[in-house]
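Reopening this ticket.

The earlier resolution said the output was attached, but the attachment link was broken on my side. Pasting everything inline this time so it's all in one place.
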Amino acid sequence: MSQELISYHGGHSGQYCNHAEDLLEEIILKYIEQGFKAVGITEHIPPVNDQFLYPDERALGLSATDLAKRFESYFSEVFSLKKKYAGQITIYAGMETETVTGYVNHVKQLIETFRLDYIVGSVHHIDDRCFDYSRSEYDGIAESFGGYDLMYQRYFDLQYEMIQELTPFVVGHFDLIRIYDDAYEERLTRPAIAEKIDRNLALIKSLDLVMDFNLRPLTRGEKEPYITGSILKKAKRLGICLVPGDDSHGVAEAGNHVSTATQMLIRNGFSTQWPVPKILTKGLKR
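Inline output:
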């Protein structure tokens, strides 16, 4: 049974992401140095339009058009690096989605245009408001819903729709909605929320998708990855595949905690026969 180091959600670089650091090639070299045989590079997609620019992008005076051009450069670079380091590491060229108004056609067009290897399907927005950029925005969204429980429920509904629409090979940081919630462990078990989690997990299993065992919380000093222990147990019972994702944003983070996470998955009875990424999204002209 293979226990090779791998990440299917990582490689955000300062070259193509304002909240990351370092050159993409430097990050690839760090993976090689650590003994990775395969890695998925999954840069964020450009926004659908200027409405969905992040605050740091606005501060720099960037537009959606600017970011689309930068994204084109990203794919040119990642395919170049794929070829350059083919004898040392297998690089899967991917992207991480957003879930905002207009995202379905936008993502499908990007897949058609760039012929990438796979996508990570993520939800960072609730009804077009980004919840993971700051605690104040997170709390404000919860208040607008009348509480955290209802915000969680809406998040999992949007995630369900995204999985149905995009069929992403990897479902990114499944329980990201807990990011600023100190009471998340108990909240995720509340019946109305747990029912939606169970529904989403059943869909992931029925489509034979991979779940991202996302290690960014460990890099931030938190106690467990996305997904939390209660959801991990449910995924195991259903036989869902989990693959480590370092969600790295620079050389210093590339490969962080992957070895520990792999051993954690083994202890919990998960297979480490990692599947090969591919495009599953329907309705393409490829």
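Reporter confirms the inline version is readable. Residues 6-267 form a domain with the TIM Barrel fold (CATH 3.20.20.140). The first strand starts at residue 6 and ends at 10.
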